[in-house]
């Protein structure tokens, strides 16, 4: 049996009807939907490669768009947290430093994934016909499947704890659900 008392208490601190919160949820859900739809469309039509003159140029353009959308998502996430109340008991050094440590681990996974895959490996180059010579199995892929996704989720979790934000925790759950669906779709 699941104890939902903690979740009920958490929802008491979050106004899910707040415009900023809704925008954050939409931006979180939109990003993986966008890049998966565009990548699959490119794979089927090669339209972006034709428009940009090469698969590499098209992949770099999509990667840039993804990075910009991630900046928008992070901004919306932060603004949604700032507009909602903090959990007073969590607004302390212990929670802040725990969040900082979780964010640092997430950042390690994201950066090491990027370094292992390179730009085109990170940003869906395989859909553009840009294939790696072999599957990457070194760190962080030796530790965790989809380390870019789970590292990003950890960054949001840490950010939420650093700000003692119940809204941030709920939005982090939305990030995790969005990435779980993306992994199922991509697999």
UniProtKB/TrEMBL annotation:
Compartment list: Endoplasmic reticulum membrane
Protein name: Phosphatidylethanolamine N-methyltransferase
EC class name: transferase
GO CC terms of this entry: endoplasmic reticulum membrane
Superkingdom as given in the UniProt entry: Eukaryota
Keywords on record: Endoplasmic reticulum, Lipid biosynthesis, Lipid metabolism, Membrane, Methyltransferase, Mitochondrion, Phospholipid biosynthesis, Phospholipid metabolism, S-adenosyl-L-methionine, Transferase, Transmembrane, Transmembrane helix
EC id: 2.1.1.17, 2.1.1.71
Species: Zosterops hypoxanthus
Transmembrane segments: 20-39, 94-119, 167-185
Lipid bilayer topology: Multi-pass membrane protein
GO terms of molecular function: phosphatidyl-N-methylethanolamine N-methyltransferase activity; phosphatidylethanolamine N-methyltransferase activity
InterPro entries, per the entry: PEMT/MFAP, Phopholipid_MeTrfase
Pathway note: Phospholipid metabolism; phosphatidylcholine biosynthesis; Lipid metabolism
One example of a Gene Ontology biological process annotation: phosphatidylcholine biosynthetic process
Reactions the enzyme catalyzes: 1,2-di-(9Z,12Z-octadecadienoyl)-sn-glycero-3-phosphoethanolamine + S-adenosyl-L-methionine = 1,2-di-(9Z,12Z-octadecadienoyl)-sn-glycero-3-phospho-N-methylethanolamine + S-adenosyl-L-homocysteine + H(+); 1,2-di-(9Z,12Z-octadecadienoyl)-sn-glycero-3-phospho-N-methylethanolamine + S-adenosyl-L-methionine = 1,2-di-(9Z,12Z-octadecadienoyl)-sn-glycero-3-phospho-N,N-dimethylethanolamine + S-adenosyl-L-homocysteine + H(+); 1-hexadecanoyl-2-(4Z,7Z,10Z,13Z,16Z,19Z-docosahexaenoyl)-sn-glycero-3-phospho-N-methylethanolamine + S-adenosyl-L-methionine = 1-hexadecanoyl-2-(4Z,7Z,10Z,13Z,16Z,19Z-docosahexaenoyl)-sn-glycero-3-phospho-N,N-dimethylethanolamine + S-adenosyl-L-homocysteine + H(+); 1,2-di-(9Z-octadecenoyl)-sn-glycero-3-phospho-N,N-dimethylethanolamine + S-adenosyl-L-methionine = 1,2-di-(9Z-octadecenoyl)-sn-glycero-3-phosphocholine + S-adenosyl-L-homocysteine + H(+)
């Amino acid at each position: 049996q699941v104890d939902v008392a903690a979740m009920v208490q958490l929802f008491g601190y979050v106004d899910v009807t707040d415009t900023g919160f809704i925008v954050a949820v939409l931006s979180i859900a939109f990003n993986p939907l966008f890049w998966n739809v565009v990548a699959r469309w490119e794979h089927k039509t090669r339209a972006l490669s034709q428009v940009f003159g090469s698969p590499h140029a098209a992949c770099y353009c999509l990667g840039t768009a993804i990075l910009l959308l991630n900046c928008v998502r992070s901004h919306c996430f932060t603004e949604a947290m700032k507009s909602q109340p903090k959990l007073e008991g969590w607004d302390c050094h212990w929670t802040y430093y725990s969040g900082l440590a979780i964010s640092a681990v997430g950042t390690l996974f994201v950066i090491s994934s990027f370094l292992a895959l390179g730009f085109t490996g990170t940003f869906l180059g395989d859909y553009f016909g840009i294939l790696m010579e072999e599957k990457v199995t070194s760190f962080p892929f030796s530790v965790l499947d989809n380390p870019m996704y789970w590292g990003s989720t950890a960054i949001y979790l840490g950010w939420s704890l650093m700000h003692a934000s119940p809204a941030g925790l709920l939005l982090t759950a939305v990030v995790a659900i969005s990435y779980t669906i993306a992994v199922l779709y991509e697999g």
